[in-house]
Amino acid sequence: MLRFFELERIDAVKRNVVERIKDFEEIYEIFRPEKAAEQAERCIQCGDPYCHNGCPLHNFIPHWLRRTAEEDLEFAFNLSNESSPFPEVMGRICPHDRLCEGSCTLNDGYGAITIGSIETFISEEGFKRGLRPRFSEEKCDKKVAIVGAGPAGLSAATFLLREGVDVEIFDRQNRPGGLLTYGIPGFKLDKKVIDRRVKLLEKAGAVFHQNTEVGKDVTFASLVENFDAVFIGVGATKGRRPGINGEDAQGCYLAMEFLVDIQKKLFGEEREHNIEVKGKRVVVIGGGDTAMDCVRTSLREQAASVKCLYRRDAHNMPGSRKEYINAKEEGVEFEFYCSPKEVLKDENGAVIGVEMVKTRLGEPDANGRQRVEEIPGSEFTVPADVVIFALGFDPVSYPFLAENGIETDRWGGIVADENYETTKAGVYAGGDCHRGADLVVTAVRDGREAAKAMVKKFEVQC
Fold first, then answer.
1. Closest CA to 44 of 59, 65, 26, 16
2. 0.85 cut: is pTM over it?
3. Is the backbone of residue 342 left (phi > 0), alpha (psi -120 to 50) or beta?
4. Residue 296: what pLDDT?
5. Are residues 165 and 455 in contact, defined by beta-carbon separation less than 8 angstroms?
6. Which tens digit of pLDDT belongs to each residue from 5-40?
7. Where would you tag: which of 116, 175, 274, 408 has the fewest CB atoms within 10 A of its CB?
8. Cβ distance 168 to 209 under 8 Å?
9. 222 with 423: CB under 8 angstroms?
10. Out of 144-148, 250-254, 289-293, 314-318, which region has the weakest mean confidence (pLDDT)?
């Protein structure tokens, strides 16, 4: 350990940009064992590890880094799975530069430990060598219904199964995984990775009910009646529009409409929108990771041009910096300090462009972030055939919530206490449907903590 003086930070190798934009395969290679051990040896083993504190899951990062450096893969594998339901997923998609790696002591002059790449290596090499996460073989005669097979739901299922609690998962999509399956493109997260985890949960006893919408195909009341507890993890899938003229023009889409539609196309599933961008001028409005997913997907769908418009600058983009860099490498054009005023359309109602106005940063708001001000008289037009709004998400107001006495706040989020229990006893909620649109890792944490709260309550009842 402590070899940061002699070893520089090395990121995982990326596939050649000319080749990677031709398909949806993952762009990062997995570390080889010797490279993972070498990079792990850079860790200085802080007494108060900032990486651990910077991780919403509080993963035992220094400990599995040390074991990786010592080539004790089995210990590293078991420890990385201890606090995380699927570390091979989080190692790929977490914005490490904002969380664990962003908190690393070595950022000051040496370059953070490549935590995400090592986390991915530990799982992939472990699976290759036959290692598997552990689940309880003893059952406690309790069962939980989980609504939604996304990050929060799968996390809750994982930690409940570890305690011997039976779970049944009800999900309206054709395949489990939620955002992980349909919203995050394959070039960031290979779908076989999700399939593998789902199979592990099934082997541990999880029962999946796909194409089953609660409130339509099965009543919520029946879940409450037939299970010892219910966990709601339905995410926040209602996309935001900018509230401008022409936003409903033919060729305007919400980000998740676009990403889900393309993923279903790749799966060969029935599509709702049948969106095609090949040979078209695509404009994406927004600056987060979802916007980067949209621009990079458009390139792979052979759009004639792809432009991203954002009201602040690159430094203030809310997403991961590596995703912005990847998008630039792949040929996305960026235009900063501009905001949409109107979507322009032809006589048939189809998009032909977006009228933008230039912006500047003003005084900070109550949260300390600089306000965005429009510059009068600075309007300009960006030609477009397709416009995608990647402006964030809100929770969906499902009728079964109010019908069953489950309160929501003024933003539509499900109200829950510190134990994730809602206003209806025995019903829990976590993830974006509770806290609003946030990171996958926070949804995963909610699922984990809600599972622990349910288990604790079961123990009291028993």
1. 65
2. yes
3. beta
4. 98
5. yes
6. 788 999 999 999 999 999 999 999 999 999 999 999
7. 274
8. yes
9. no
10. 314-318
Does position 460 have pLDDT exceeding 80, yes or no?
Answer: no
Q: How far is CA 218 from the centre of its chain?
A: 27
- Closest among 140, 85, 54 to 448, alpha carbons compared: 85
| pLDDT tens string 76-91 | 999 999 999 999 999 9
Let me know: does 125 contact 417? Beta carbons within 8 Å: no
Q: Which amino acid is at 180?
A: L
Listed residue (34, 30, 141, 95) closest to 326, CA to CA: 95
How do strand 229-232 and strand 427-429 relate by DSSP bridges? Answer: parallel
Parallel, antiparallel or unpaired: strands 351-364 and 338-345: antiparallel
Which parts of 405-448 are beta strand (E)? 427-429
d(CA 207, CA 405): 27
3-state secondary structure of 451: helix
Question: Do 170 and 232 meet the contact criterion of CB atoms below 8 Å apart?
Answer: no
Query: In 3-state terms, what secondary structure has residue 165?
Result: coil
Confidence of residue 461 (pLDDT cuts 50, 70, 90): low
Q: In this structure, what token pair is assigned to residue 242? A: 């900018």
What mean pLDDT do residues 213-222 have?
97
- Tokens of residue 3, six digits: 């070899």
Look at the block and give the residue holding tokens 């390139």.
299
pLDDT greater than 70 at residue 425: yes
Contact 394, 236 (CB under 8 A): yes
DSSP string of 215-251? TTTB-HHHHHHHSSEEEE-----EE-----BTTTSBT
